[in-house]
Amino acid sequence: MKPDLSVKIKDITFRNPVTVASGTFGSEGEYQGWVDYEKLGAIVTKTVTRKPREGNPMPRIYETPAGMLNAIGLQNKGIEEFIEKKIPFFSKIRTPLIVNIAGESVEDYVCLAEKLSHLKEVSGVELNISCPNVKKGLEFCAQPGLAYEVVSEVRSVTPKLLITKVSPEAHDFLGVVEACVKAGTDAFTAINTIRGMAIDVEARRPRLANVFGGLSGPAIRPVALRYVYEIKRRFDVPVIAAGGICCTNDALEFIIAGAHMVAVGTANFVEPRATMEILSGIEKYLGERRLESIDEVRGTVKVDC
Ligand SMILES: Cc1cc2nc3c(=O)[nH]c(=O)nc-3n(C[C@H](O)[C@H](O)[C@H](O)COP(=O)(O)O)c2cc1C
Asked: Which end of the chain has the least Cβ crowding within 10 Å, N or C?
């Protein structure tokens, strides 16, 4: 018998723990042909904002050892076009859809969440309060009080699964997490990218027009694992892990640390089938150990101290 990979968060049962990280999986069907969208546990969209955004000036991507810097700057066409043009595509796919949103004010987040709360195609909302590449992107995870405000206001307008995306750029990381839990978040995504920089020594200029960019990929995996573990050690709240997950072993590390789901990000650019390979790898891991369910693996890390 095949092991049970299903994962429950709030009132949603995801068929398995493998999902994608916002902004790394195109904006609708780009990965078709490599990925069976109906085999993913969930689909997470790129950040959608209230108004269209052009994003930051080029160059805005730079490859680094074991990772990349990006300063895309939340380029997107805005919520109205998202609802009109993208939702119809996702409505045909029988996989829970999580829409990632960002704003510059509490009002922006509330407006976006409210609009999405009316759509049956949307299973959950992911609050991006941790984008390092835009003005005010990190504001709401800079202080527990601000994080509380945005999460509680959004909570009051949507009954949908509410996930808050956090970053180690928050100086009081666990304080922010605690504030979000108190404000009613149902889960966390951890982590967003971490600001970094690269310089072209010939031109003596930053490699990115934005100077700083968010570092992602395997380079940040141990950091992400630490933060996922820290959340799980302190709070009984589901976590969707992100940060350098490239293969089955990486995904299992996060699940053993306590993550409910694993989001594949930068690895999609290197190996577009990464999610599918990780999914069958997890299934094999359970099968070889005669484990019946992913619940027998989650949070089983043995720590002596
Ligand atoms: C090119 C690129 C674009 C991204 N865009 C978004 C975004 O729009 N919203 C968001 O919340 N995170 C965004 N992220 C962050 C990822 O969702 C993820 O949290 C981070 O990259 C860590 O995972 P990874 O190391 O597997 O890529 C982006 C990352 C990359 C590399």
From this structure: C
